């Protein structure tokens, strides 16, 4: 098979797996699974949502059936508000009806919500069967589909119920982003910016240069960005995630840096009601607030914070903190998964390309950062 795609390996000790990135890969999903050791005749449950099914379901189905897989498709209404144990139970019901065995697999065809739920269902069906991630949103391509974190939400917080369950393969076809709404694309750019801030100064510079060439929105849509820059961003982001996951598979230390912007971002999602803000939009707000906290603590410069603000704005992401009671936000932070012995751990930038983890952020500093974020100062 011609190598018309980029392969990035997540180098886990026990079970490494590839991330394939290239135009037109979706229709060849079955052949890539055969290469990974799956047998013709294997039962496959494809989990997706109505929009993705309408645009891409037929191509995925043909790609699987042409390699001899026995496929059934489960179409679920997706959305953060439906990311619940009840939805996972519906996947389990479909797995039972399709007679999935230990050698079977679940394919997650969709965004981060579908990937999280399908991955968690795979982790818990027959005590664990294979899952393959086929992300169809930018956010899922650069973040959610890679690394094996699966789960669903609890009324008390986001992703409190879950498991680590690594995929056997991640297949990324940038062509499917043609059907992605621009708001979803912009939300995915928040995670790309995250990777740039936490560990890839060159990626940050590339994003800045693109924004300078087209200040009207080079980072806010697939069309404005162009295929070459998009491919480069996908590769660098996936490689960054793969390096961190390989070094810390179960978030015992280093992997926590991937939560940059997520501590306060999750509070925005939860307190505003799931579905009000897209995950990436909330992460963008969380990064801005974390940057303000870092400035207040003397960890990084106001100049770097201004650069981050400009980049978030160039991606077309929301800049103003929502009208949330600071006391309620501080209480919500205590439910975050990253709390240790009652202390909230923040990932804070120390420079473009480097971050630190701190558990000594004073509540007054958090309040001040929220006030600054609420002022809706936009840097263009």
Would you write up a description of this structure?
The protein has 380 residues and is α/β, with parallel strands linked by helices. It is built from 14 helices and eleven strands. It has helices spanning 29-35, 50-65, 85-97, 112-124, 138-144, 182-199, 201-213, 222-225, 227-247, 262-272, 279-296, 302-314, 326-333, 363-374; strands spanning 6-10, 17-21, 43-48, 70-75, 105-110, 130-135, 149-154, 157-164, 169-172, 346-351, 354-358. Strands 1-2-9-6-5-3-4 form a seven-stranded mixed beta sheet. Strands 7-8 form a two-stranded antiparallel ribbon. A hairpin with a 2-residue loop joins strand 10 and strand 11. Helix 6 (182-199) crosses helix 9 and helix 11 (279-296) crosses helix 14. It is globular, with a radius of gyration of 20 Å. The termini are far apart.
State the gist of this model.
It is an enzyme of class 4 (lyase). 46% of the residues lie in helices and 17% in strands.
Class inferred from helices and paired strands: alpha/beta
Which fold name corresponds to the CATH topology of the largest domain?
Dehydroquinate synthase-like, alpha domain
**Biggest β-sheet strands, sense, barrel:** 7 strands, mixed
Fraction of helical residues: 40-55%
Total helix count? Answer: 14
Q: Unreliable runs, pLDDT <50, ≥5 residues?
A: none
Q: CATH class of the largest domain, please?
A: Mainly Alpha
Round the mean pLDDT to the nearest integer and report it. Answer: 92
For the terminal residues, how far apart are their CA atoms? 46 Å
CATH homologous superfamily title of the largest domain:
Dehydroquinate synthase-like - alpha domain
Please give the radius of gyration in angstroms.
20 Å
Major beta sheet, strand line-up: 1-2-9-6-5-3-4
What is the string of helix and strand elements? EEHEHEHEHEHEEEHHHHHHHHEEH
Instruction: Write down how many β-strands occur, each being a DSSP E stretch of 2 or more residues.
Output: 11
- Overall outline: globular
Q: Which percent range describes the beta-strand content?
A: 15-25%
Number of domains: 2
Query: Architecture of the largest domain, CATH level 2?
Result: Up-down Bundle
Catalytic activity: 7-phospho-2-dehydro-3-deoxy-D-arabino-heptonate = 3-dehydroquinate + phosphate
Domain 3-dehydroquinate synthase N-terminal: 74-186
Keywords: Amino-acid biosynthesis, Aromatic amino acid biosynthesis, Cobalt, Cytoplasm, Lyase, Metal-binding, NAD, Nucleotide-binding, Zinc
Pathway: Metabolic intermediate biosynthesis; chorismate biosynthesis; chorismate from D-erythrose 4-phosphate and phosphoenolpyruvate: step 2/7
